[in-house]
Amino acid sequence: MTLDKDLSSIQEMRDTVKKASRAQQEFMQFSQWKIDSIVKAIATAAFNQSKELAQLAVEETGMGVAEHKLLKNQVGSKDVYESIKDEKTIGVIHEDKENKITEIAYPYGVVAAIIPTTNPTSTAMFKTLTALKSGNAIVVSPHPRAKKCTVETLKVCMQAALEEGAPEGLIGWISEPSMEATNQLMTHPDVNLILSTGGGGLVKAAYSSGKPAYGVGPGNVPVYIEKSANVEKSVQMVVDSKTFDHGTICATEQSIVVDQAIQEQVKKELQKNGSYFCNPEEKKKMEQIISIEPGKVNPDIVGKSALKIAELAGLDIPSDTRLLIAEEDQVGKNVPFSLEKLAPVFALYTAQNSNDAKERCLELLNLGGRGHSFSIHTEDDHLVREFGKAMPVSRVIVNTLSSIGAVGATTALAPSMTLGCGAYGGNISSENITARHLYNVKRIAYGVKEADIPQPGKTADTKAEPSKQVESLTKEAVEKSGVATEGIDKTKIEQLVKEILKEYQNQS
């Protein structure tokens, strides 16, 4: 009997979860040292295969740049490992001897991981390392258009883990993924946590599964180039960031907001760095190819080069063009250039001043990027704090490439391929998700304070002996003040205590 594709995918998922659950029960008994040795082996193997896996991802998905995916793979393997290697994640992780509290970490169990088509290999590395570091097993549902490169990455990780003594089945995957299998994976009774990176539908499904879940939101990131910025340097970084892997990282800048005072200078630097400005007629053609329905970006442009997108739009542009730009003054679902475009396509907005820029950036974030990231280039630290407080985001990236800065490559943020959007974006966390989010902590707490429990029907009458209460509280206040007795007006203190007691008794 031959099962159809959906049934086969569901059965494979169930078998894989069963193996992972069994393996995790064994794995969680391992020492911190043993788990760390397995995680290190995985990171090393993944890092060593970064180039081949990057090339495989580009060949399969048709998205991005192999050299850039190589860098993402290195962040997802080596950088992630370096950031978590010394963290205690198993057994006793902290002891507070003064307060007599002992903290003990324990894993969630089986982690279901949803992997996107835009960053398939690096995300698979990152999620595997962080899940196992915390004592979990992992079962991965790849994107159907990136299943080969994702599974190959997981095979590299699993082989390294097995050679270091990990139990069989600790790292699992659905080799022929389907939407139904993915949905059932997220609700499977043996799955304990969901790490979802993908489209809005999948993230919503993860949060609706009844399981603990980390999801992410869209990142319609505005970048504000303020008049005090080093324009030459800032523009180069913005262009390098926007064109990195053809714009497939969600933290990539999507629209430039520039002060009127430096607009012409910025435009010249953009052109110097390979940007092509569309004229009104070309802009209309681009709008038709960017969005095929209001609020929806055409998937055919995602991760494609500027030349390829121009070809799709019927534009004749110079062969060295890296970035397509159109000047814009509107924001909305019916304004294609204002949407999140995971491609080397930019909108350029001109602001009269910083207040005008702030309003424009808020418009763009409210359109579809709340909770994610905001980028700013300025030499005014006061302005950074002002915008930092005003923007409804979880990361404010300053004077660097937003795309790779947000994931921790050029900043001190935790290296991560899953960026939480917090309450602004409907997420449970606003942090860069890493190993510390993938385990629970139980606490052993000793009694350190005495409690005088009133007996039923024998509640003390606080009004009966107020003079004794006043005397006792006055004495305690004097002793704690550390001031010599002769320097204190006891009468005033007694009067103050009486007033406080009277107010308290009236309230009770």
Write the layout of secondary structure elements.
Elements: H1 5-27, H2 32-48, H3 50-61, H4 66-84, E1 91-96, E2 101-107, E3 110-114, H5 120-133, E4 137-141, H6 147-163, E5 171-173, H7 179-187, E6 193-196, H8 200-207, E7 213-214, E8 221-225, H9 231-243, E9 253-259, H10 263-272, E10 275-277, H11 280-290, E11 291-293, E12 296-297, H12 306-313, E13 323-327, E14 345-351, H13 354-368, E15 371-377, H14 381-390, E16 393-398, H15 402-405, E17 439-445, H16 466-481, H17 490-507
Parallel strand pairs: 3-4, 3-6, 4-5, 6-7, 8-9, 8-15, 9-14, 10-13, 13-14, 15-16
Antiparallel strand pairs: 1-2, 2-17, 11-12
What are its keywords?
Aldehyde Dehydrogenase, Chain A, domain 1, Aldehyde Dehydrogenase, Chain A, domain 2, globular, alpha/beta, seven-stranded parallel β-sheet
